[in-house]
Amino acid sequence: MQSYDALYSQNLYWYALYVRSRHEFKISNRLADIGIDFFLPVVEKLRKWKDRKKLVDFPLFPGYLFVHIQKNYSDILTVLKIPGVVRFLGILPGEPAPVPEEQIISLKKIIENKRDIDPYPYLKEGQTVRIKRGPLAGVEGILVKRAGQHMLVLSVDIIQQGVSLKIDASDVERV
């Protein structure tokens, strides 16, 4: 027979929250105050001012944090009532979608490792993207992955020809 704690923890799921801009830390403090388990992935970045430099914590995913709650009306409503919480993320409107536990565990391991971590754009092969900086800024094409390298493919339809260019995924954005 399983203990109550083991049974209770099986009903907990991770959910992604979308929050107001620059409210991640305020909301995480409120969640801690009311006893809700949460995860706010943060990275340290060196900030420079005129007179000093300092390592400052920044959310890895600005505007998002994760809560570990049961999928019931009461828990969801408790979180939604916190000032600054905009909504739960989900595929269907009003229906929070759980984040796989493995993704949260992996993300926690990466954060604990404290190596150089940078956000990486969520891109899918075949997606139309635009280069956002550098001499090719504004160029649009299709994202392709070949031999572990991201490529931007520009097609000229009328002549049925194309050209590919190696790109860094952090230099492109979805169109």
Outline the fold blueprint.
Blueprint: H1 4-9, E1 12-19, H2 24-33, E2 37-39, E3 42-48, E4 53-59, E5 64-70, H3 73-80, E6 85-88, E7 98-99, H4 101-113, E8 128-131, E9 140-146, E10 149-156, E11 161-166, E12 172-174
Antiparallel strand pairs: 1-5, 1-6, 1-7, 2-5, 3-4, 8-9, 8-12, 9-10, 10-11
Q: Summary?
A:
With about 180 residues, the chain is α+β, with helices and mostly antiparallel strands. The chain has two domains: about 5-115, Alpha-Beta Plaits, CATH 3.30.70; about 130-175.
Give a description of the structure.
The protein is globular and about 60 Å long. It contains four helices and twelve strands. Helix content is 21%, strand content 38%. The strands form three sheets. Strands 1, 2, 5, 6 and 7 form a five-stranded antiparallel sheet that branches. Strands 11-10-9-8-12 form a five-stranded antiparallel sheet, with no helix packed on it. It folds into two domains: 4-113, Alpha-Beta Plaits; 128-174. It starts with a helix and ends with a strand.
